[in-house]
Amino acid sequence: MAAARLCLCLFLCLLRLPRDAFAARPAAAGPGAGRGPGDGMNVLFIIVDDLRPVLGCYGDKLVKSPNIDQLASQSMVFSNAYAQQALCAPSRVSFLTGRRPDTTRLYDFYSYWRVHAGNYSTMPQYFKENGYVTLSVGKVFHPGVSSNYSDDYPYSWSIPPFHPSAEKHENDKTCRGKDGKLHANLVCPVNVTEMPGGTLPDIQSTEKAIHLLNVMKTTRQKFFLAVGYHKPHIPLRYPQEFLKLYPLENITLAPDPWVPKKLPSVAYNPWMDIRQRDDVEALNVSFPYGPLPDDFQRRIRQSYYAAVSYLDVQVGLLLSALDDAGLSNNTIVVFTADHGWSLGEHGEWAKYSNFDVATRVPLMFYVPGMTTSPASQGARVFPYLDPFSHIGGSSPQGQSKTVVELVSLFPTLAELAGLQVPPACPKMSFGVVLCTEGRSIAHYLNLSEGEVEQGKEGSDDTERCSNEEPVALSQYPRPADTPQWNSDKPRLKDIRIMGYSMRAIDYRYTLWVQFDPSNFSADFRNVHAGELYLMDNDPNQDYNVYNNTSQALTAETDEELLMLGVPD
Description:
Elements: H1 2-16, E1 42-48, H2 66-72, E2 76-82, H3 88-97, H4 101-104, H5 113-116, H6 123-129, E3 133-138, E4 175-176, E5 182-183, E6 187-190, H7 201-219, E7 223-229, E8 236-239, H8 272-275, H9 278-281, H10 294-324, E9 331-337, E10 342-343, E11 349-350, H11 356-359, E12 360-366, E13 398-405, H12 409-416, H13 449-457, H14 461-468, E14 472-478, E15 497-504, E16 507-516, E17 521-534, H15 546-552, H16 555-562
Parallel strand pairs: 1-7, 1-9, 2-13, 3-7, 6-8
Antiparallel strand pairs: 2-12, 4-5, 9-12, 10-11, 14-15, 15-16, 16-17
Pfam families: Sulfatase
Function: Lysosomal enzyme involved in the degradation pathway of dermatan sulfate and heparan sulfate.
GO biological process, one term: carbohydrate derivative catabolic process
């Protein structure tokens, strides 16, 4: 109970903190200010769609990901990294601008922050303004309204972004069913030669990115190359040979494939985009809680893992090309995802929630000379590894359990590349073009895991509250207290409730509060529901003890909570 009381008190303290408590540390003054360990280096920024950390380097014993694991063996790997919203467009706009969703005012897909919120600079724009050639391949910004139908070109990119031609066929009927006909299925292993154009989007993106690496080798200009991969985003469409890596008899159900008894109905996501796929629709699963048949759950998990191995091949080819171009010793490589994806945990599929399975992402930084010693002339750093024949795994070069956020990517990469770290945003920053609500985590790349943990545990309760307790803030909107057809992806005008969630190393605490979309305000005096999960006893977040804990709190603390709101 003391731990639970600390959880809530810490949350209350954090709500009081000015916004810059979470923001970037300014660059040091004096000689050498603004210089980083990767000063003058190129940046290869790899962003994956819907990838939870089911990778060998994160301890997964089933998934075969030798190329990503090899990258991890040369990198600092963060095992507790979290997105700010488990939805593609809001998450990507958040980490690419260094602002939280309440500042970008994007919770759906249908507004462009420069018009709707403020003319905020982006991470690639900042690199471009500092002399880099900035290049975008695949899904980096979410396409459409949220990036002005241009992936924010020309602000963010030196040349128009590349989108693979096969991308337009992602939701076509290209999945051959048992009846021999083509369907728009969720589970969709394919013969690539039968696909439109004889290819798939991620294959095309890898080919284009390799071409650009070779161009940049020739021009010898500093570059910031962002490569966005689609898989394992649904549909789970990938080359069918990857199924061989995952015999169905080896695939288990999620450890907790039931809807938790004390889960507030507002917290549940009814996975509508899954239900609308031809193969799932044919199952006639009841809305909103009806479970999928066990055998089909296994097939989804099997195809998700297969799609991850297909992704690993693309990453391996890209990193091998970085070697071939002679750029591995002067290029920072960042690997992450926009959010996770539920694989049956809590009776849920897809993203659209505040649980770890939806918000937790892989995050690793390779910085030559910092996370690893520079390779000798001609030595390969990233030789391609075939997941069908490679045996054995690679351990991370360094690993930190520190809780970190994707909103910190902008200041972190700026610092690592030797650029001036953008200043911390003031409390009201809608009119500020360049600032960040993230905090650079570059200093963690210099610390061993033991040193990081010692630094965290050495503070008392007051220091944890006001100073250095690392936390990650996420949020998710809902249209109503109970699951609706639009609960997963409500449009701004339909949002009535916002779930604000804080993840610390030992708990996750969430409040679902009244939200007014007309003025983007959350009313913490009107709490619809709460969730509290204590990680030591409940690592899968199955047992909500929020109501148990609230009974033990004093009336004074209860009143204090009701009078608080999130920072402006």
